[in-house]
Design a protein that fits this description.
Blueprint lengths: L3 H10 L41 E3 L5 H16 L4 H9 L1 H11 L11 H4 L2 H4 L8 E6 L7 H6 L6 E7 L2 H9 L8 E5 L22 E7 L10 H11 E12 L4 H4 L6 E3 L2 E3 L5 E3 L3 H10 L16 H7 L3 E15 L4 E14 L19 H14 L2
Parallel strand pairs: 2-3, 2-5, 3-4, 5-6
Antiparallel strand pairs: 1-10, 6-11, 7-8, 8-9, 10-11
Organism: Penicillium malachiteum
Protein name: tRNA N(3)-methylcytidine methyltransferase
InterPro entries: Methyltransf_12, METTL2/6/8-like, SAM-dependent_MTases_sf
C-alpha cells in the first residue's frame, strides 16, 4: 500500500479540469466573490488561479486521478480488514460511536447552516403559519442540524425529534443550553432497529405515519449494507403519506475513500475508519434503486449490472418516489499546503407516496450552498480517521 506521503504527493500534483473561460453567460452563475459567499456557482475556468479560493464547484476529477483511484481500490481489496476486526466492528458499532462522541466535544462540530438553503422545506416548516410539523433527524450527533432549526423557528407547532445511535451524543444535546423541550426532544435510537420483546423498532414516543420530514445526513453510510433494508422500513413506517426524506451522504470516488490504507477495506465501497466507525460510499444508480425500488413485501432490489430504466422504475409505483438525486462534486483547496482534494457527496430528496396534495418535484436540484467551514471540518475528520 502507498504511504500517506505518496498519496499526499499525488494530490498535491493534481491538475483539475478547467472549463473554457466564458463571461457571456449570466453573471449570477459565475460568482467569484467571498462576501456574500454563494456555493454552487464558483466554476474553475481556464486561466483561474486554483489557489485563489478554498473551494470550487462542479469539478469532475481528471482522468489521471480516476486512474489513480482505481489503483488504490485494487490495493485496498488486496489488504482487507481481518476477519476478527470485521466481526468486532460490525458486531458492536454503537461502542465505536460512543467513543467517537466521548472523545469529540460539541465544539468539534459546526452547525449545518446550509441545510435551510439546500432543502427549502426546512425553512417552510419553521414559518409562523406552517402549523403542526414533526421533523425527525436520524443521527443527530451533537445537534448541529436540530439547534439551528430551533433558533430560526417561528412555528409554535414545530417539534424536532433528534435521535442518535450514541448515548453520548444524546447527552451532549440534552445538556446544551440550546436544548428547548418545547420544540425538541433527543433520544437514543438505532435507525436499523428490529422489533423486540422490549418494544417496537420506532423511536421512543413516535407513532407510525406521524412524521412530516426525515433528515438523513451521513447516516446510511454508517450502516452495514445489510441494515439498509430495515432502516428503509422504519423510515417508511414513520413518515406520513407525502412526507419527505432529506438525504446527503458520501459518493464513490470521494478522496476520503481513495486514501484509505491497508486493513480498512470491509467489502466493496465499505470501510472502517481508524476510530472504529464505518463508512460506505454510494453510486448514483445504487441510490436510485435503493430508494426507488424497495418495497415492504419484496425488500431491496438492486441490480447495478442491468439497472431498470427510469420509466420502468416510475411504472413500479414503489413506496418512495425519487424527486431528486444529484452528485455534488467539489474541489476543496488547502491553500497553505497547496493540496487539491476532490470531494463527492450524493444528495437526494425522496417522498413517500400517497399524499393527498403532494408538492411538485423540482425541475432540477438546487445549487449546493454548503458552508465551507462544514466541508473543511468533515474533510479534517476524514483525514484523521482514514489512517
Amino acid at each position: 500500500m502507498p504511504s500517506g506521503k505518496d498519496i499526499h504527493d499525488f494530490i498535491e500534483k493534481v491538475v483539475p479540469p478547467q472549463i473554457p473561460a466564458s463571461r457571456t453567460h449570466d453573471p449570477a452563475n459565475n460568482l467569484k466573490r467571498t462576501d456574500p459567499f454563494q456555493f454552487g456557482s464558483r466554476f474553475l475556468e481556464e486561466g483561474d488561479n486554483v489557489y485563489e479560493f478554498n473551494a470550487w464547484d462542479h469539478v469532475e476529477p481528471d482522468d489521471e486521478f480516476k486512474a489513480f483511484a482505481e489503483v488504490q481500490y485494487e490495493k485496498q481489496r488486496a489488504a482487507p480488514v481481518s476477519d476478527f476486526d470485521r466481526n468486532r466492528f460490525n458486531t458492536d458499532p454503537v461502542k465505536w460511536w460512543n467513543l467517537f462522541y466521548k472523545n469529540n466535544t460539541d465544539n468539534f462540530f459546526k452547525d449545518r447552516k446550509w441545510l435551510r438553503q439546500e432543502f427549502p422545506i426546512l425553512a417552510e416548516v419553521t414559518q409562523k403559519d406552517a402549523g403542526p410539523k414533526l421533523v425527525l433527524e436520524v443521527g443527530a450527533g451533537a445537534g448541529n442540524t436540530a439547534f439551528p432549526l430551533i433558533r430560526n423557528n417561528e412555528n409554535e407547532g414545530l417539534k424536532v425529534h433528534a435521535c442518535d445511535f450514541s448515548k453520548y451524543a444524546v447527552k451532549v444535546m440534552r445538556e446544551s443550553e440550546q436544548y428547548d423541550e418545547k420544540y425538541m426532544v433527543a433520544d437514543v435510537w438505532d435507525a436499523a432497529a428490529e422489533p423486540s420483546e422490549e418494544g417496537d423498532s420506532l423511536p421512543p414516543g413516535l407513532q407510525e405515519g406521524t412524521v412530516d420530514v426525515v433528515i438523513l445526513i451521513f447516516i446510511f453510510s454508517a450502516l452495514n449494507p445489510n441494515q439498509w433494508e430495515k432502516a428503509l422500513s422504519n423510515i417508511y413506517r414513520l413518515l406520513k403519506p407525502g412526507g419527505v426524506v432529506l438525504f446527503r451522504d458520501y459518493g464513490r470516488g470521494d478522496l476520503a475513500q481513495v486514501r484509505f490504507k491497508k486493513g480498512r477495506y470491509m467489502e466493496e465501497n465499505f470501510y472502517v475508519r481508524g476510530d472504529g466507525t464505518r463508512v460506505y460510499f454510494f453510486d448514483h444508480e445504487q441510490l436510485v434503486q435503493l430508494w426507488g425500488r424497495w418495497t415492504p413485501e419484496n425488500g431491496l432490489k438492486i441490480d447495478l449490472e442491468n439497472p431498470p430504466t427510469a420509466e420502468q422504475t416510475a411504472e413500479e409505483q414503489n413506496p418512495f418516489e425519487v424527486l431528486n438525486l444529484e452528485a455534488d462534486r467539489r474541489l476543496i483547496v488547502n491553500r497553505s499546503s497547496k493540496l487539491k482534494m476532490y470531494r463527492c457527496w450524493m444528495q437526494g430528496l425522496f417522498r413517500k407516496r400517497g399524499g393527498s396534495d403532494p408538492a411538485p418535484a423540482p425541475a432540477a436540484a438546487p445549487a449546493p450552498k454548503v458552508d465551507v467551514e462544514v466541508v473543511e471540518v468533515e474533510a479534517a475528520a476524514d483525514a484523521e480517521n482514514d489512517q
